[in-house]
Design goal:
The chain has about 300 residues and is an alpha/beta fold. The protein has one domain: Alpha-Beta Barrel (TIM Barrel), CATH 3.20.20.220. The protein is built from 11 helices and 8 strands. The longest helix has 17 residues.
């Protein structure tokens, strides 16, 4: 049973997940060095699947590298690049290595990446992938062919509390929960009142006891990152006054950090929120600082790979 599933099902918290850095080269030792600082603070770490439609090292390979370092992976699986056969083989193959947490995502369009001539697949969407993953956990491929023994899986997804159309956000999330998503990592929101309204709507539907909501907190270096997200990241809007606040600060890096800290505290103070998901674009120790300022303590874990250089 994965540590993440134990925390969620036992109602422990707050839960902290984070996004592992993408891998484009180097050795296992190089990767373990890159994750050593954030790994001290997280309960599990997401492994992206060609994030933002850019090619990177295999999600399954990086998830295995995380597990070898004693860090629990959350395997992101994206529908954009693979048909249902490849999606199933990724999930079952990862489970062979003890990787149980699966995060199901439809994926960005290939036009968002640096190889827009790539042919998109989208054989399934994220909602269908949630159902597929739960079917695998019940011991059957999508074809109905039996898997004996069935892989142990803990299935989640991503969603947004703030992307338009706002009045449909809870309905979309409800469908994912009904399909079997046990956790939802929510897109970054600069509108805390909308997060509260989203939670209230799910609560009205009687769904909050069935899912753990983990809002994303993004650590940025300054106003440039906020403006990029506002202009280039689908579904994300940053209020002009928020960008101006950071831009006009004497120390943009500190102002951006304080903004993230405020967002994290507001999210954790929202009734029904089980934890946070961290995306760190700073790589300067701000993730650890944030966790300390939130009152979190470092995690204890042991590396499982021979010769691993990760020490936390």
């Amino acid at each position: 049973m994965s540590r993440l599933s134990e925390l969620i099902e036992s109602d422990q918290g707050p839960i902290v997940t984070a996004e592992a850095p993408s891998v484009d080269g180097g050795t296992l030792a190089d990767f373990h060095e890159r994750i050593a600082e954030p790994a001290q603070w997280v309960d599990a770490m997401n492994v992206t699947d060609n994030t933002a439609a850019h090619a990177h090292a295999s999600n399954v390979a990086v998830a295995i590298a995380l597990a070898q370092a004693g860090v629990e992976p959350i395997l992101q699986v994206v529908c954009r690049d693979k048909n249902r056969l490849a999606l199933q083989s990724d999930i079952v193959g990862a489970a062979l290595h003890g990787i149980e947490n699966v995060c199901c995502i439809t994926g960005d369009q290939v036009s968002a990446g640096d190889e827009p001539e790539a042919k998109p697949v989208f054989d399934l969407d994220g909602l269908q992938l949630i159902s597929l993953a739960n079917g695998l956990a019940e011991g059957r491929y999508l074809s109905g062919r039996a898997i004996e023994p069935a892989p142990r899986l803990f299935v989640g997804a991503v969603d947004s509390a703030v992307a338009p159309p706002f009045d449909e956000r809870a309905e979309r999330a409800a469908k994912k929960i009904e399909a079997g998503a046990k956790f939802l990592q929510l897109q970054i929101s600069y509108f805390p009142e909308r997060l509260g309204a989203f939670v209230e709507e799910l609560d009205k539907r009687g769904l909050m006891s069935r899912v753990a909501l983990l809002p994303t907190i993004v650590l940025l270096k300054g106003a440039g990152g906020l403006r990029f997200m506002d202009e280039r990241v689908p579904g994300v809007t940053v209020p002009p006054e928020t960008i101006e606040r950071v831009e006009q600060a004497d120390d943009q890096g500190e102002a951006a950090y304080q903004l993230a800290l405020e967002q994290a505290r507001a999210a954790l103070d929202t009734p029904g929120i089980r934890g946070i998901h961290l995306t760190d674009f700073r790589r300067d120790g701000a993730l650890g600082r944030l966790c300390r300022d939130l009152g979190f303590t470092p995690k204890e874990r042991e590396a499982h790979a021979h010769g691993s250089e990760l020490s936390v």
